[in-house]
């Protein structure tokens, strides 16, 4: 029998710190896949699972190491708890200098000094990718380029929420959220501030996603993502750093993710994962609860636990002491 | 302005080809110059339903590859003056369809003065289906009144509105739902989803409801698009759908067991 509340893999737990201040997040999404082995008799030695982890994105504006050191020093003073062996992605998408002259290893070392572990590189040209390989860095696809038109085979898609305890952190599809027709944001990832931004803006800015519970100074509010057209099966919409409002039905097989709250003014038949960065204060509101799964900060309930007296009613879901509560809206 | 209409569904065997044949014939019967393209490369059967399989020389892929001109490959329908069929290749694989190639053929059809271009999509959501829907400005999503078909239609609607050319341009694709193989008796006994349920799940415009009818099978075996069978309820329902597509307001028929269509069928069967 399924218990009413289960704990999904909390992305924060991999960092051991619940109130980490995030600068900008990148989410990696993938589908479960088992390793196929040739020998039928032996069980696979491991299982591949998709994960959904917040990562810091460092968007480097220039190759000035001295300036980077100064900026990092300032940043550490501002939010020391952030820089504790935190994994980070180095992005060169906003890089303005000659990338050929970039000393990748020096940057890696420098970041390490400040507790930031560069795990991957994004937006690099071929030459730099080769260097990255030598440094054992993963290469990530450029965020600006849209995924090629490859449509996934339907077999790949499975509503695993019913059986998979960790499902709450594993979006069931790889399709990127260009589904968000109502929004101009065509990337699943959105960076909430200008880290290491080009000249003019302060080089380091404090991120302030909804997860922020440190009470430190907040900068401008993150815009709410508003979707006005139906969210269909297989679509995934992620509101990075803020709230998500959907003014249309959300189909079974669709997935909503937000660092903040989720509001659905229509039937919610798919999955809704609020506070995906670990924000336990986040809530889910919907006009008609018909969801496959509702999750807040990794605590979730699946469809069969939701089919009670509140089914098809207007409700809100909130978290108290690791328990996901559903109560009617009046 | 020429209209590119994709007939799609996600799921196979729901009635896309039957619908493509009926709708394209219906539009041509109403005086519109229409082309219907079979995108189901490797599994062609539109030409069978249109009864032109023995006249196929060149196909869609030949045109894309420049091995034949569009004019050489287009087959003129025997029944409708204004209708042309562009058959699929039986031998190639789906990758023969390229975005550039498909676009070129569509543009050429528009230049030739075609008002409607109907794209009969293969099942699934892979390359062939994507190619069929990518350039569409209107979509007829065919769904049978059962949960898995409706779910696939929902998925296709999502893909249409996020991956098509119009979506990339920040525009929407006009969407229509066509419920086919509808059996009011089975809806009443609870074996089948009602049209209201389907519409509630998909929340989109209903183009029509085509009853499940033996006449469809009979017609397709004869190579006759069902819309030519003016006696059959399915043929009439398709004619209504064409009228709605052309902007006319027509009441939906054949939705309940009491409807004329059902009794006619009973009557005809016993007669
Ligand atoms: N309204 C209908 N009533 C009865 N049979 C139908 C109806 N529509 C389609 N069919 C039958 O269903 C089968 C699949 O139809 P088809 O149009 O080839 O589907 P698709 O192109 O979606 O694979 C065919 O045998 C066809 O005759
Ligand atoms: Mg077909």
From TrEMBL, chain B:
<keyword id="KW-0132">Cell division</keyword>
<dbReference type="InterPro" id="IPR025669">
    <property type="entry name" value="AAA_dom"/>
</dbReference>
<dbReference type="GO" id="GO:0005829">
    <property type="term" value="C:cytosol"/>
</dbReference>
<feature type="binding site">
    <location>
        <begin position="11"/>
        <end position="18"/>
    </location>
    <ligand>
        <name>ATP</name>
    </ligand>
</feature>
<protein>
    <recommendedName>
        <fullName>Septum site-determining protein MinD</fullName>
    </recommendedName>
</protein>
<dbReference type="GO" id="GO:0016887">
    <property type="term" value="F:ATP hydrolysis activity"/>
</dbReference>
<keyword id="KW-0067">ATP-binding</keyword>
<dbReference type="InterPro" id="IPR025501">
    <property type="entry name" value="MinD_FleN"/>
</dbReference>
<comment type="function">
    <text>ATPase required for the correct placement of the division site. Cell division inhibitors MinC and MinD act in concert to form an inhibitor capable of blocking formation of the polar Z ring septums. Rapidly oscillates between the poles of the cell to destabilize FtsZ filaments that have formed before they mature into polar Z rings.</text>
</comment>
<dbReference type="Pfam" id="PF13614">
    <property type="entry name" value="AAA_31"/>
</dbReference>
<dbReference type="InterPro" id="IPR010223">
    <property type="entry name" value="MinD"/>
</dbReference>
<feature type="domain" description="AAA">
    <location>
        <begin position="2"/>
        <end position="162"/>
    </location>
</feature>
<dbReference type="GO" id="GO:0009898">
    <property type="term" value="C:cytoplasmic side of plasma membrane"/>
</dbReference>
<keyword id="KW-0547">Nucleotide-binding</keyword>
<comment type="similarity">
    <text>Belongs to the ParA family. MinD subfamily.</text>
</comment>
<dbReference type="InterPro" id="IPR027417">
    <property type="entry name" value="P-loop_NTPase"/>
</dbReference>
<keyword id="KW-0131">Cell cycle</keyword>
<dbReference type="GO" id="GO:0005524">
    <property type="term" value="F:ATP binding"/>
</dbReference>
<dbReference type="GO" id="GO:0000917">
    <property type="term" value="P:division septum assembly"/>
</dbReference>
<dbReference type="InterPro" id="IPR050625">
    <property type="entry name" value="ParA/MinD_ATPase"/>
</dbReference>
<keyword id="KW-0717">Septation</keyword>
<dbReference type="GO" id="GO:0051782">
    <property type="term" value="P:negative regulation of cell division"/>
</dbReference>
<comment type="subunit">
    <text>Interacts with MinC and FtsZ.</text>
</comment>
């Amino acid at each position: 029998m399924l218990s009413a509340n289960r704990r999904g893999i909390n992305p924060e737990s991999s960092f051991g710190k619940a109130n980490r201040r995030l600068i900008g997040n990148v989410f990696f999404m993938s589908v479960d896949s088992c390793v196929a082995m040739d020998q039928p008799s032996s069980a696979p030695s491991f299982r591949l699972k998709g994960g959904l982890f917040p990562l810091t994105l460092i968007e480097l504006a220039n190759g000035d190491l001295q300036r980077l050191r100064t900026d990092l020093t300032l940043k550490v003073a501002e939010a020391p708890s952030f820089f504790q062996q935190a994994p980070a992605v180095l992005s060169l998408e906003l890089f303005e200098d000659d990338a050929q002259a970039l000393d990748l290893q020096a940057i890696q070392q420098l970041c390490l000094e400040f507790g930031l572990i560069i795990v991957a590189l994004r937006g690099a040209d071929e030459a730099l990718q080769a260097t990255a390989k030598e440094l054992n860095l993963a290469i990530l696809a450029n965020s600006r380029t849209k995924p090629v038109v490859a449509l996934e085979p339907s077999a790949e898609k499975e509503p695993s929420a019913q059986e998979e305890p960790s499902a709450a952190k594993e979006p069931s599809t790889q399709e990127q959220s260009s589904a968000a027709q109502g929004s101009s944001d065509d990337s699943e990832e959105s960076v909430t501030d200008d880290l290491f931004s080009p000249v003019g803006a302060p080089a380091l800015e404090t991120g302030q996603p909804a997860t922020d519970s440190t009470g430190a100074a907040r900068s401008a509010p993150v815009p709410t993502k508003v979707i006005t057209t139906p969210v269909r099966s297989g679509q995934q919409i992620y509101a990075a750093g803020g709230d998500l409002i959907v003014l249309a039905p959300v189909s079974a097989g669709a997935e909503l993710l937000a660092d903040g709250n989720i509001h659905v003014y229509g039937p919610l038949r798919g999955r809704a994962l609020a506070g995906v960065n670990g924000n336990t204060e986040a809530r889910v509101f919907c006009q008609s609860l018909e969801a496959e799964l509702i999750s807040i900060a990794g605590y979730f309930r699946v469809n069969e636990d939701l089919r009670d007296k509140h089914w098809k009613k207007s409700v809100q879901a909130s978290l108290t002491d690791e328990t996901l509560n559903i109560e009617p809206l009046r | 302005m020429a209209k590119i209409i994709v007939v799609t569904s996600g799921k196979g065997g729901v009635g896309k080809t039957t619908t493509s044949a009926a709708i394209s014939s219906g539009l041509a019967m109403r005086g519109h110059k229409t082309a219907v393209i079979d995108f189901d490369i490797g599994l062609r059967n539109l030409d069978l339903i249109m009864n032109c399989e023995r006249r196929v020389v060149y196909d869609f892929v030949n045109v894309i590859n420049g091995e034949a001109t569009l004019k050489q490959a287009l087959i003129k329908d025997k029944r409708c003056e204004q209708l042309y069929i562009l058959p699929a290749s039986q031998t190639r694989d789906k990758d023969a369809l390229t975005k550039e190639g498909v676009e070129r053929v569509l543009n050429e059809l528009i230049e030739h003065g075609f008002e409607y271009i109907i794209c009969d999509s293969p099942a699934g959501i892979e390359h062939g289906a994507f190619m069929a829907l990518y350039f569409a400005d209107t979509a007829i999503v065919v769904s049978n009144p059962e949960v898995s078909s409706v779910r696939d239609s929902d998925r296709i609607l999502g893909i249409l509105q996020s991956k098509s050319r119009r979506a990339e341009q920040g525009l929407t694709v006009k969407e229509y739902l066509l419920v086919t193989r509808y059996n009011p008796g089975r809806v009443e006994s609870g074996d089948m989803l009602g049209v209201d349920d389907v519409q509630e799940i998909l929340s989109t415009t209903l183009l029509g409801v085509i009853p499940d009818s033996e006449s469809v099978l009979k017609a397709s075996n004869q190579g006759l698009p069902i819309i030519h069978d003016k006696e059959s309820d399915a043929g009439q329902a398709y004619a209504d759908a064409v009228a709605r597509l052309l902007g006319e307001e027509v009441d939906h028929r054949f939705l309940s067991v009491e409807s004329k269509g059902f009794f006619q069928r009973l009557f005809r069967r016993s007669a």
